TrEMBL record, chain A:
It comes from Actinacidiphila rubida. This is Transketolase. Its cofactor is thiamine diphosphate. Belongs to the transketolase family. Residues 25-213 form the Transketolase N-terminal domain. The lineage of its organism: Bacteria, Bacillati, Actinomycetota, Actinomycetes, Kitasatosporales. It comes from the Bacteria. InterPro entries: THDP-binding, Transketolase_N. Keywords: Thiamine pyrophosphate. Pfam families: Transketolase_N. One of its GO terms (molecular function) is magnesium ion binding.
TrEMBL record, chain B:
The lineage of its organism: Bacteria, Bacillati, Actinomycetota, Actinomycetes, Kitasatosporales. CDD domains: TPP_PYR_DXS_TK_like (cd07033). One of its GO terms (molecular function) is magnesium ion binding. This is Transketolase. Residues 2-168 form the Transketolase-like pyrimidine-binding domain. It comes from the Bacteria. It comes from Actinacidiphila rubida. SMART domains: Transket_pyr (SM00861). Pfam families: Transket_pyr.
Length: 255, 300
């Protein structure tokens, strides 16, 4: 749509650095970076040319906080012009601190209030199935703290009960839930009949394998564990205090 | 005569047969009325169980894929409990749906406050772009449901009740009708309130307007009727929270001095059980109750 070149993974942080003003959600933004990259690079069958194709795969960013990595990945893949990134959060910018689907090309939902993406994802999977579009997949990205919201559990239990195979969840777990999920987040999905796997959320090959694991007759959840929010914040504070650049670490999973 | 809710089941079952774009989402309530439809269209008749956030969330998701979803349960669990889903999963996503409620204000009188939602229309008034139908008879409910199902991708609320007028008054959605022409003042009756309004004002020289679609508010018809009156007095009688339409009436009449009396169910919690007829009387919305308050207002 922009005619500009597409970017690679190594250039994402440069794209993200163009966005300022939402430092509060900094750790939330970088926790999703690798998951988003692998999804858009290797999993999702959607492109700027097919954003209106009824049979496209759907990616629903439920955890709308810290959308810098999301916008960077969308820009890297040509869904939106990279020039938009510098306006992030400004009055006339289409890119807010929480995404609005009516303003952001390629964004399937507007989000920010936690706990809405899974319900919308369930409905999307049901709608695709009802129209015979059984090859289309729905991916919903949630955060581990977002799973505190009760609305998610209505969706998880229902999707498991009816075996909603087209529905996928990737839960980015940076240990930010106020009360940790006893037994780990994956166990909550498994208990409701989902296929579930926990992987290193910075390991692209492991993520790819988890994302492509067969799960006949069941919805599928991937828990992607990344460094804890507190650790990420502490590291960031150190970088700022020591003036050691912004974000060079590739973080290999300190969980 | 069947109830509005039973008519909803009959009509929706038929519409699901005719229109492959329609889907019905339930949360246990009324599921027994849709057994045949669910058997015929298992992919488009969806019962999520007692999960009202998911009821509305899934409705938004269905709409995102291009379907025209109809979601149904009691008003308290359709509008109040999942209000943020109504606001965000429909409005903020920019998608449409038909929400069909039952038992809104006082139908479930013996059920008490937990099963009553007299504030439903007022809550929807805080949002953008909702059409609100308040049919006064099962035949009107059928016509408005058919209209809503075919109403593009608009967000439409259809408020069904056991409280109904004796006869239907067919009209075109969005236009208030002149039921009786008078000179003294104007009384606007919404949906099931018409019969009681006509009895309460039988011996007064007033214009009676009827609205089975209350949003959008037909300001032009109200303004014209009040303009024709000897005194610029308007009485609004609604079967839900008193005053819900008062801001719309004030806006319609803003160009000239006027008076508005807004009647509906009272705000104070009404801790009684019994029947819906007893509750209508308890809220002062039966003919004697209306007559006393309308007379006092117009004769002041």
């Amino acid at each position: 749509m922009t005619g500009t070149r597409r970017y690679g993974y190594d250039e994402l942080r440069a794209l993200m650095s163009r966005m300022t003003g939402d430092e509060k959600h900094g750790p939330a933004a970088t926790s999703t970076l690798d998951v988003l990259w692998v999804l858009y690079d290797r999993i999702l069958r959607v492109s700027p040319e097919t954003v209106d194709d009824p049979a496209r795969d759907r990616f629903l960013l439920s955890k709308g906080h810290g959308p810098m990595a999301y916008y960077a990945v969308l820009a890297a893949h040509g869904f939106l012009p990279e020039e938009w990134l510098t306006g992030f959060g400004a009055y006339d910018s289409p890119l807010g601190h929480h995404p609005d689907r009516t303003l952001v090309p390629g964004a399937e939902i507007g989000s920010g209030s936690l706990g809405h993406g899974l319900g919308l994802g369930v409905g999307s999977a049901l709608g695709l199935r009802a129209q015979g579009l059984t090859g289309s997949r729905v991916w919903v990205l949630v955060g581990d703290a977002e799973m505190d919201e009760g609305s998610n559990h209505e969706a998880v239990q229902y999707a498991g009960a009816v075996g909603l195979e087209q529905l996928h969840v990737v839960a980015v777990d940076n240990g930010s839930a106020t009360y940790p999920w006893r037994g780990g987040l994956a166990s909550r999905f498994e208990a409701e009949g989902w296929s579930a796997v926990t992987v290193d959320g910075r390991d692209h090959q492991a993520l790819h394998e988890a994302f492509t694991a067969p799960h006949p007759g069941r919805p599928h959840a991937v828990v992607a564990r990344v460094e804890s929010k507190d650790a990420a914040q502490a590291a960031r504070a150190t970088r700022i205090a020591t003036g050691s650049g912004t974000a060079a670490s590739t973080g290999t999973g300190t969980h | 005569m069947d109830t509005m809710r039973e008519r909803f089941a009959t009509v929706t079952t038929e519409l699901l047969e005719d229109d492959p774009r329609l889907a019905l989402v339930l949360a246990a309530i009324s599921a027994d009325l849709f057994k045949d439809a669910a058997r015929a269209h298992p992919d488009r008749v969806i019962d999520v169980g007692i999960r009202e956030q998911l009821l509305v969330g899934a409705t938004g998701g269905l709409a995102l894929t291009g379907l025209r979803p109809i979601a149904h349960t009691f008003a308290s669990f359709l509008v109040e409990r999942p209000f943020e889903q109504v606001k965000l999963d429909l409005g903020h996503q920019g998608v449409g749906a038909v929400l069909v409620s039952a038992a809104g204000s006082y139908d479930n009188a013996a059920g008490g406050r937990t099963h009553q939602a007299p504030g439903d229309v007022a809550l929807l008034d805080t949002l953008d772009g909702w059409t609100v139908h308040v049919p006064g008879h099962p035949d009107e409910a059928e016509a408005l449901l058919r209209h809503a199902a075919a109403d593009g991708d608009r967000r439409v609320y259809v408020r069904l009740s056991n409280h109904a007028n004796a006869e239907p008054l067919p009209g075109s959605p969005g236009r208030f009708q002149v039921v009786r022409d008078g000179r003294g003042a104007v009384v606007l009756a919404v949906g099931p309130m018409l019969d009681a309004v006509l009895r309460a004002t039988a011996d007064r020289d007033v214009t009676v307007l009827y609205a089975s679609t209350v949003r959008p508010f037909d300001a032009a018809t109200v303004r014209a009727a009040v303009n024709r009156s000897v005194r610029p007095d308007l009485v609004v009688v609604e079967p839900y929270l008193a005053g819900t339409s008062a801001p719309f009436a004030a806006e319609a009449l803003a160009a000239f001095p006027h008076r508005v009396l807004a009647l509906g169910t009272r705000r104070e919690e009404f801790r009684h059980y019994g029947t819906w007829q007893e509750h209508v009387a308890g809220h002062g919305l039966d003919a004697p109750g209306l007559r006393g308050r309308i007379d006092a207002f117009l004769d002041a």
